[in-house]
From TrEMBL:
<dbReference type="InterPro" id="IPR036291">
    <property type="entry name" value="NAD(P)-bd_dom_sf"/>
</dbReference>
<dbReference type="InterPro" id="IPR050721">
    <property type="entry name" value="Trk_Ktr_HKT_K-transport"/>
</dbReference>
<dbReference type="InterPro" id="IPR006036">
    <property type="entry name" value="K_uptake_TrkA"/>
</dbReference>
<dbReference type="Pfam" id="PF02254">
    <property type="entry name" value="TrkA_N"/>
</dbReference>
<dbReference type="GO" id="GO:0005886">
    <property type="term" value="C:plasma membrane"/>
</dbReference>
<keyword id="KW-0633">Potassium transport</keyword>
<keyword id="KW-0813">Transport</keyword>
<feature type="domain" description="RCK N-terminal">
    <location>
        <begin position="1"/>
        <end position="128"/>
    </location>
</feature>
<keyword id="KW-0630">Potassium</keyword>
<keyword id="KW-0732">Signal</keyword>
<keyword id="KW-0406">Ion transport</keyword>
<feature type="signal peptide">
    <location>
        <begin position="1"/>
        <end position="23"/>
    </location>
</feature>
<dbReference type="GO" id="GO:0015079">
    <property type="term" value="F:potassium ion transmembrane transporter activity"/>
</dbReference>
<protein>
    <submittedName>
        <fullName>K+ transport systems, NAD-binding component</fullName>
    </submittedName>
</protein>
<dbReference type="InterPro" id="IPR003148">
    <property type="entry name" value="RCK_N"/>
</dbReference>
Length: 135
């Protein structure tokens, strides 16, 4: 079992939280918007916190000191980058993954040693593959 903190309760964040909790992991979710946190099922077994993912006290309350992983999936690339850096540098969380919509930002963040995924790049790769690598 892993202890995972998810920053951002978008559709992706909520589904990740639900899937990981269903797989037996201990999950904490942080989002500044109460309505976003309502995306979680009523019987969600994890912890839920309203606030921002760079709040050191809130991260500590969510278990960052002992977390195995943190996933930053807010709707802002810059927020995800800062959160990932805080998780790695202040709390020494072993696995930190962040989303970046901007492919250029994703490359820059990777150059900093961060584990970044880019839905935009995934989408482009998928469409190009489906079109046979359209030239």
């Amino acid at each position: 079992m892993m202890k995972v903190i998810i920053i951002g309760c978008s559709r992706l964040g909520a589904m990740l939280a639900t899937s990981l909790a269903g797989a037996g992991h201990e999950i904490s979710v942080i989002d500044p918007k109460a309505e976003a946190l309502e995306r979680l099922p009523h019987d969600f077994p994890g912890q839920v916190f309203q606030g921002v993912g760079i709040d050191l006290e809130l991260l500590a309350k969510a278990g960052a000191d002992t977390a195995d992983a943190l996933i930053a999936v807010t709707d802002r690339d810059s927020a995800n980058l800062v959160t990932a850096q805080v998780a790695r540098e202040k709390f020494h969380i072993p696995r930190v993954i962040a989303r970046a919509y901007d492919p250029r930002a994703a490359e820059a963040y990777r150059a900093m040693g961060l584990d970044i995924f880019c839905p935009t790049t995934f989408g482009i790769d998928y469409v190009m593959g489906r079109l046979g690598g359209a030239e």
